[in-house]
Every structure is written in C-alpha cells, then in structure tokens.
Design brief:
The chain has 285 residues and is α/β, with parallel strands linked by helices. 26% of the residues lie in helices and 12% in strands. The protein folds into 2 domains: 149 residues, Oxidized Rhodanese, domain 1 (3-Layer(aba) Sandwich), CATH 3.40.250; 117 residues, 3-Layer(aba) Sandwich (Oxidized Rhodanese, domain 1). The strands form 3 sheets. A 5-stranded parallel β-sheet has the order 1-5-4-2-3. A 5-stranded parallel β-sheet has the order 6-12-11-7-8. The longest helix has 11 residues.
Length: 285
C-alpha cells in the first residue's frame, strides 16, 4: 500500500485486514452536527474509527478569535487523537466520508499531510461508492490499541494566515483560488457567513467542478482546467480557500490528483477574512 491521494474502493477492500492499514470515517453534515456520528454508529467500513469535524479536526473555541468557522486544533491535541486511534507514521491511512470527500475526509487527509504523513488517501467516491460496489460494512465499534501521540507537529509553511493573504492583494490573478460555489463567491447569495463576496483578486473554482458522479474527475482533464486558473503562478505559489478551510482541502486534493503539487491552504478562509470588517471585500456584478 502506497496511496497518497485517492484509493479505489475495490482495491481497498483487498487490503482490509492488512495490519498496517488504518481507516477513518469522517462523515459530517453541516446542518446536523450529530448526523455523521449517528451514521457511523449504524454502519461503517470494517475497523474504521470516527473523526468528528467539529471535535477532532477543528477547535471551535478559537472561532471567537477570528480564525474562521473551523480553526485548526493545536497540533498536540491532534497528534494525541491520532495516537488514540492507533495511527503511527508507518501506517497507511485511508479516510472517507459519505461521498466525494469534501465533508470532511479531505480535511483529515490534509491535516495528516501537515504532519508529514505521506501515506494517506481518500476513498474515491466515499461511502456511496463503497455501497455501490456491495463491499462489506459493520456496526461493530473497533477498540484501537492506544499508541503514543503521533510524533511531530504541523508544517506551517504549508498554511497561510490573514496577514499573508492581505500582503498579496496586489499580485497578479491566479495566486488565490476560492473553492466556494459561484453564487457565494460572487456575493449574490450567502447562507452561511455574515458577509457575502470574496477576497479581492481571488479566482473562483467551485470544488464541485472537480467531481463527476461523486468521484474526482480524470487527472488529465482536471489539470487542463486547473492549470490556466493559475496564470503565471507556479502551483507552490498558489493559495486555496473556501468558507472555513474544509472544502479548500478537497480542492487541494484535486490539484494533487492532477499533478499540480504544492498549493497552500488559507486556514481561516472566507469566515476568517471577514472577521475583521476593515478587510476589503469584492463582489461580482
């Protein structure tokens, strides 16, 4: 096993009993914070543990500090949780959610990458694809053998903060890519955050444009569409954002799948940007 972006459900099924495999269910529903865990308790992949977006993959106590709706948890808290799940550097980790990985499998994939863990992948098509293939599920809750905290901390060079974004507002277009739906990016609609619009200079690439039938599209097709968005910027100079730093990770997964490696994530994203009313906001007519 050496999966670093996506893994097909049928291939994963052949390795379910590999001792170096760790599976994490990251289902989450924004409108019902309990729905993901409830679904997990009802049925999940064999040996899978559950990761809660709000409790394990974010620290909501920091929302009031202007860090967006899903601030990163302290690295120590996250690495301790990985140890409780029995995850160590040698393990192949596979993450899934209900469908395309955007809620919140790609978030956990990215967080492990921040720790320098290369062998982590998202199930292509998620639980829906697993169901469609008729692969096994269970309601048994695993009890992982606890391990010490995962060694290391976040590589902060792969993240971007508010000041970094503000300093680049005058750069040529293509350095900042917003993964939200066009209606939210343009400012025509906003159902989640208190201010509509986008960071001046950002270009829009709705994450759903990268998906077909619940799976990431062909790598060559994605590259042909994503590369032109960047203008003269190399992928490593590009910053990805969304509403709160979750679906931006799915956009990063698409970039990596397409061979465009190196973009960074604006962790606070739109909800962090608008926490300061003095920051500029753009709308599209």
């Amino acid at each position: 096993m050496n999966w670093t972006t996506l893994v097909d459900p049928t291939l994963l099924a052949l390795h379910l009993h590999d001792p170096d495999l760790r599976i994490v269910d990251a289902r989450f529903v924004l409108t019902d914070a309990n729905a993901g865990r409830a679904g997990y308790l009802e049925s999940h992949l064999p040996h899978a543990v559950y990761a809660d977006l709000n409790e394990d993959l974010a620290d909501l106590s920091r929302v009031a500090q202007g860090q967006g709706r899903h601030p990163l948890p302290d690295a120590d808290a996250f690495t301790a949780r990985l140890g409780q799940w029995g995850i160590a550097p040698r393990h192949q980790v596979v993450v899934y959610d209900s469908g395309d990985g955007s809620m919140a499998a790609a978030r956990l994939w990215w967080m492990l990458r921040l720790l320098g863990h290369p062998n982590v992948a998202v199930i292509d098509g998620g639980l829906a694809a697993w169901h469609a293939a008729g692969l096994p599920e269970t309601d048994e809750i695993p009890v992982p053998q606890p391990r010490p905290a995962y060694p290391g901390g976040y590589d902060t060079s792969r993240t971007v903060g508010d000041a970094d974004v503000a300093a680049r507002l005058g750069d040529a277009p293509g350095w900042l890519v917003d993964a939200r739906a066009e209606a939210r990016y343009s400012g025509r609609e906003e159902q989640v955050d208190r201010v509509a619009g986008h960071v001046p200079g950002a270009v829009n690439r709705p994450y759903l444009d990268n998906v077909a039938d619940g799976r990431l599209r062909d790598a060559d097709a994605l590259r042909a569409e994503l590369q032109p968005l960047l203008g003269t910027h190399a992928p490593a100079d590009v910053v990805l954002m969304c509403g709160s730093g979750v679906t931006a990770c799915h956009l990063l997964l698409a970039f990596e799948h397409a061979g465009l490696e190196g973009p960074r994530i604006y962790t606070g994203s739109w909800s962090g940007w608008i926490s300061d009313p003095a920051r500029p906001v753009a709308v599209t007519a």
